[in-house]
Amino acid sequence: MTEKVFYQDSYQKTLQSEVIEVLDDAVILAATIFYPLGGGQPGDTGRLTIGGRDYRVSDTRFAQDRKGILHYLEGGDCTAIRVGDVVDMEIDWERRHRLMRMHTSMHLVCSLITAQATGGAVGETSSRLDFDLQGQVIDKQQLSDDLNALVTRALPVSIGSISDEELEQNPDLVRTMSVQPPRGAGSVRTITIEDTDYQPCGGTHVRNTAEIGELVVTSLKNKGAQNKRINLALVEP
Ligand SMILES: [Zn+2]
Fold it and tell me: FRET label pair with 126: which of 20, 82, 148, 160, CA 20 to 30 Å apart?
């Protein structure tokens, strides 16, 4: 079981922990700030220092049981690493911060489109989000302008959680969510952008929409009869 520090604090760049499991090409740590691939957001990259030796982390993924988190080491050589070894870790912060800015901007897109999102991928400088538009018409320039207006309003972004029980008792609340919450885990983590968007999400986000900076909708594409793909980019990566 890995303690997932990134769920509480998306801004922590370094952490000391210890190795709890060693695989052929990856290690599992007691606690981590590395975000594992999920919810459309790529896994973190960075560096681990173990026993005076530096290792590049090329990808981060959940273990099959989703309790542990696998830090994949470039070159895949874990032979010198032992359970109990102390680890100093550092994420590639500039990359992560761009992913946070992009992920929060995807939630802004969700707030401006009434249709259901059907898929998406957060990238470092550009991202895409697919919608089953059900007839809603989108104008590229208007969407860019509306997104930038939300960035300029400097809206606070906060992390919360809601239990399955509360979800059950508040169908109206569920209806206001732009993405339907998964059930059965006991509770789900939520992300709220003040006055704008509320949805279940496990990703890492900026604290305030002002941090995103200027956005541009680069293209709108038809993907199938119903699906529309919105491509979005940071103007200043
Ligand atoms: Zn999200």
Answer: 160
Q: In angstroms, what is the span from residue 103 Cα to ligand 1's centroid?
A: 6
Which residue type does 107 have?
A: H
SS3 assignment, position 73: strand
Which tokens belong to 141? 């320039």
Helix (H) / strand (E) containing 169 = helix 164-169
Question: 181: pLDDT confidence band, cut at 50, 70 and 90?
Answer: confident
Highest mean pLDDT among 121-125, 131-135, 162-166: 121-125
Q: In which order are the strands placed within the sheet that holds 227-234?
A: 116-121, 126-132, 227-234, 215-223
Distance 62 CA to ligand 1 centre (A): 17
Rounded distance from Cα 38 to ligand 1 centre (Å) = 9
